[in-house]
Amino acid sequence: MNRPLSRALLLASTFAPLAAPVTAMAQEGAAAADDGVIVVTAQRREQSLLDVPIAISAVGGETLATKGITNSANLQSAVPNLQISSPYGSTQPNFSLRGISVANEYNSNQASPVGVYLDDVYLANRTAHGMGLFDLDRVEVLRGPQGTLFGRNTTGGAINFITRAPSLSGTEGYGELGYGRFNTWTAQAALETTLVEDHVGLRVAGNLVNGDGQMKNVAPGARDPYAQDTLQGRAMLRIKPGDGALDIKLKAYGGRDRGTGTAVHGFAPFRSGLGFFETNENRIGKANTDAWGFSANIAYEINDKLTFTSITSRDGGKQDLDQAADGSPIDILQIRWQSDYDQFSEEARFNYSSDAISLVAGAFYGWDRVVTDNRFNIGSALAPGVDGGFFQHYNQRRSSTALFAQGDVELARSLTLTLGARYTWDRATYKDGYAYLFAGGVDDPMTPLATTVPCPGVPGTCAYDPDARFSLKGGNNALTGRVALSYKTDGGALIYASYNRGYRSGAFNGGGYTSSAGISYIDPEKVNAFEVGAKGRIAGMLTLSGAAFYYDYKNQQVQDTRPGPVSFLVNAPKSEVYGGEIEASAKVSPMLSLNASVGYLHARYKTLALQGTVLDGNRLPFAPSWTVQASADITPYNGSAGKLTISPSVAYFSQQYFSPFNAVNATGSAQVNSDLAQDGYAKVNVTAAFKTGRFTIKGYVSNLFNARTYVYGLDLRGAGFPYNFLVPSLPRTFGGSVRVDF
What is the DSSP secondary structure assignment for residue 356, as one 8-state letter? Predict the structure, then answer.
């Protein structure tokens, strides 16, 4: 027996105690009503969550609010084996699902291995992933490679944010105003109106957050980090003319953030006497991002078995991040990250359904472009007391074309075979690339001294040439797909086993600015994933799901910073990932509901060497062995005056590393990689809501016990700086709001 299959069977036996009670006890509750059924579109058609043979978490819009999840960067508190981190606060989050992430790669040109979608539209640029969450129907998180129906760059999984659409009946909406710690004002509102009953409806929604910095900066006259200034808006027009065979959803959205940058724990002499949530930084800058988009989702029911759907979108935006990267009142390292991006995509598919077969087949085409202008100011870069740095520019364009099909065939009563395949053609260009070494401080104009891109040598060895340019092309073709066998018991429980092949296209090194020697097109990632799982309802009260998985993971794309300093984007040849998850929810009584989940993860490099150091056996970054979430909705009072609900929640994460090196230091380097880790921790949130008539009064506390944790770390000692780069998480926040529904 081959090792992946034997490992999968071992994990299946570990989780067998879950499958058995689900099967047996779900039969006991077979006559239970379908109350609480969650409908998802994980397989590009509407299905009950319990009928989908995929490890999937679906979190409703109301649950997001109850758990205090107001930004995509907070989603990890509701989903097992999900980690979210960023060196830029909530901007450009790094999603890690079952240990698969961008690892220590921080450049804006990289695609996330966890595909992020907004109403089924793939968002190519990671800056757009740090979105505020408002007026959502639900969020679907699919764990494991989605190489068939969600096929673009999804070795780790897919996250689909699904907004509320007009219902085409009546008029309704809400408005909410809140105030919290750090002088933070929040406002949300939505209005839905039916222009023609059953045929034309419009829904508009908006979100505003404005607040002072959430950490204290002791540097005289300097800004506080983590200030918030967010404004978002969205409108959807739905048209369903005539007999309703045609359903058109036209959506436009836009948003902007104008907050301040993150705090950094960096140069140690200036950390003396400071609390964890304090910094001494003279240059906390603005963190500006913009995002906008338009989409048309057109579905036409050709007959009662066949539907055609077209999804066309155009999205864009930009980021301008002024990052103080030293955590000190002197200018050691200051970075200006600037990128403009835009994209286009078109997906056309047919859905066919009969008693014996369900089929989805179609085609996808999309392109995305990012134009980057980064400036790296380094104190005393040229000589003691002589400041300088590097300027970098490039234009990257990627395109992806794919054909896909997936079908469910009923082999026998309650036994279904799923077969799916996707063939993808990916092409990429890196052009107009140049970088140079300059003289000048942070506030000075740049005086070019030497061209570094294109230049294959040590910085300063190539004369400055303003016309020198670097370009490169790359491309991959890939066949991915899915095979699954699922069985539905008489009581409604689902048991399944599956194989999925995932793929993430090759990539250019966006961090190559000190030398063109580090700019190349590296190999794509590939994942062979084996999974077994079960899900069902027990006695009509308890919903339970579990999965065990094994991944054969090849060519993870990681950064290798070498003396010079020169950054290389390289492939980690081979990794092994296995583990499992259990999720449970129970309606114990009208006064008490419980939710809990547990995730276990073993994620190790089997073959990896960076900077000449063998790292075989090290853990993948952002991959804690254990994640645990638990929450409750407690209703101590439900009477004539209204309804009071108290909702505590806790999320636990075991130790994790931020670097593929873990605690190992490269031979002969000044690294202290043991700093780049976060020990296990738990965070507790509590909300309380009193609903009376059309009004809801809510209070909340996030990070109740003020846990002091890091969310990101990067080795800078190996690049010649006298410190490591660590980003602290936010302190305790609290506040309240009043909402009116109409």
Answer: S
Q: What tokens appear for 675 in the block?
A: 């700093």
pLDDT in tens, 434-479: 999 999 999 999 999 999 999 998 888 999 999 999 999 999 999 9
Q: What is the pLDDT of residues 165-196, one digit of tens each?
A: 999 999 999 999 999 999 999 999 999 999 99
Place of tokens 């409108």: 235
CA dist list (Å): 335 to 67, 201, 258, 365: 34, 46, 17, 35
Structure-token pair, residue 563: 């003396």
Query: For the purposes of burial, counting CB atoms within 10 Å of the CB of 315, is it exposed (0-12), middle (13-18) or buried (19 or more)?
Result: buried
Measured distance CA(482)–CA(385) in Å, rounded: 59
Contact 565/586 with Cβ under 8 angstroms? Answer: no
Longest pairwise C-alpha distance within the chain: 81
Q: Which of 418, 583, 549 is nearest to 486 (CA)?
A: 418
Closest of 349, 351, 364 to residue 407, by C-alpha: 351
In order, the DSSP letters of 490-512 are TTS-EEEEEEEEEEE--EE-TT-
Q: Hey, what are 286's tokens?
A: 């603005």
Opening angle at CA 503, ends 497 and 508, nearest 5: 160
Q: Considering only CA atoms, which of 682, 689, 734 is closest in space to residue 709?
A: 682
Angle at 647 between CA 642 and CA 651, to 5 degrees: 170
Distance CA 98, CA 530 (A): 13
pLDDT in tens, 547-601: 999 999 999 999 988 776 788 999 999 999 999 999 999 999 999 999 999 999 9
Q: How far apart are CA 549 and CA 99, in angstroms?
A: 12
Q: Residue 386: what residue type?
A: V
Q: What are phi and psi of 25, to 5 degrees?
A: -80, -25
Pairwise CA distance, residues 664 & 434, whole Å:
34
Rounded distance, CA 43 to CA 149, Å?
A: 7
Type of residue found at 213 = G
Among candidate residues 695, 602, 621, the one with its CA nearest the CA of residue 662: 621
How many Cβ atoms from other residues are within 10 Å of residue 637's Cβ? 12
Residue corresponding to tokens 């999937």: 56
What's the burial of 425, exposed, middle or buried (CB within 10 Å: 0-12/13-18/19+)? middle
- 397 exposed, middle or buried (CB, 10 Å; 0-12, 13-18, 19+)? middle
